[in-house]
Amino acid sequence: MGVSFLWQLTLRQRSFGKHDRIRESDPDAGSTPRTWIQRVMRMSTAANPLGCYVEDGIEYPDDDGVEMGDNSAQFAWITLLFTNLTSQYATNPNVVVIGNMNWYPVKGSNQICRAPDVMVVFGRGKQYRGSYIQWREDNIAPQVVFEILSPGNLGQEMEEKFRFYERHRVEEYYLYNPASESLQIWLRDGARLRERAAQPDFVSPRLQIRFENGLDGLKVYRPDGALFKQLSDSEREREEAEREREESDRKRDEIERKLAAEQRMRAMLEREREQEQQKRLAAEREIEALRAQLRSAGINPGS
Q1: DSSP 8-state secondary structure symbol assigned to residue 27
Q2: Which of 39, 89, 120, 283 could form a disulfide with 95 if both were Cys (CB 3.0 to 4.6 A apart)?
Q3: Same domain for 78 and 157?
């Protein structure tokens, strides 16, 4: 299946980070690590009883205790993907985009758990959920997962994540390293995730978004061709659009005022014209009456 990239990660990452990340009991690893999750479970029960899902006496905590984004670059990419994908599927009630949420795929085990940076689930609604409890979601696994690499991600952690996503039926797995601007892509092939060969353009089979990795870094485009944008970019565009709209409204109001003034002027001139015409008609009637009087007196008005 090819996970040689993990050893490269180990060489280029600094040896510190999330030593207490929740990890799956991995038979391939030859050991069952003692996990931080047990401490979270105790805190959830004592401090926040609603911070976990309980079934058959087993607690499934909502929080893995790891903050979203170790640094500004990682956080920016997580929010970029989450906000743009959320917008893309805003009107589709059967697609949910989830960020940094615990995913429990196996009923009865609270140690088999991961919290992908971003995951997309087709076939599920947008209702509130504290964790993604797969057997309560019609046993639908997230089809698309994104991980954004940070200096705190160790090679062993990333290897365990890969095995988890492969084992639990993720269809598309994207791993992006902002530091090196490198994107790695795995697609499901039967029971395995197979890495795609590096290429400048790639379109997600599920999401239909396009990844373009060029000299100026990775760019992501919506199915309609629009570029994925940060909230700050979108906010600036909204502010600019608002200013343009206000300017357009001001110009429209000014034009409407001028048109109204012209209409009032035309109406006044029309009234004056009608008044003049009425005066002329009245004068003509008066003249005709005088002529009639002269004719009745035997005087010819034309002589």
Answers
A1: G
A2: 89
A3: yes
Of 205, 229, 253, the one marking the end of a domain is 229
Structural domain total, the chain: 2
Give the residue numbers spanning the domain of 101. Answer: 5-16+68-229
Structural tokens at position 238 = 């909204």
Pull the structure tokens for residue 261.
């003034």
Closest C-alpha among 194, 216, 191 to residue 205: 194
Q: What percent of the chain has pLDDT over 90?
A: 53
Q: Is 141 exposed, middle or buried (0-12, 13-18, 19+ CB in 10 A)?
A: middle
Mean pLDDT (whole number) for 32-52 = 40
Same domain, 264 and 295: yes
Residue 198 and residue 168 in one domain: yes
Does residue 47 form part of some domain? Answer: no
The pair phi, psi for residue 58, each rounded to 5°, is -105, 130
pLDDT tens digits, one per residue of 191-226: 999 999 878 899 999 999 999 988 888 999 999 999
**Could you tell me if 72 and 219 lie in one domain?**
yes
Residues whose CB is less than 8 angstroms from the CB of residue 115 and which lie 6 or more positions away in sequence, other chains included: 22, 64, 66, 100, 101, 102, 103
Say which residues have a Cβ less than 8 Å from residue 35's Cβ, sequence separation at least 6: 20, 22, 23, 111
Using a cut of 0.90, tell me whether the model's pTM lies above it: no
Q: Could you tell me which of 48, 58, 159, 55 has the C-alpha nearest to residue 114?
A: 159
What pairing do the DSSP bridges indicate for beta strands 210-214 and 217-221? Answer: antiparallel
- pLDDT, tens digit, for every residue of 139-164? 999 999 999 998 888 889 999 999 99
* CB 124, CB 92: distance < 8 Å: no
Are 228 and 219 in contact, with CB atoms under 8 Å apart? yes
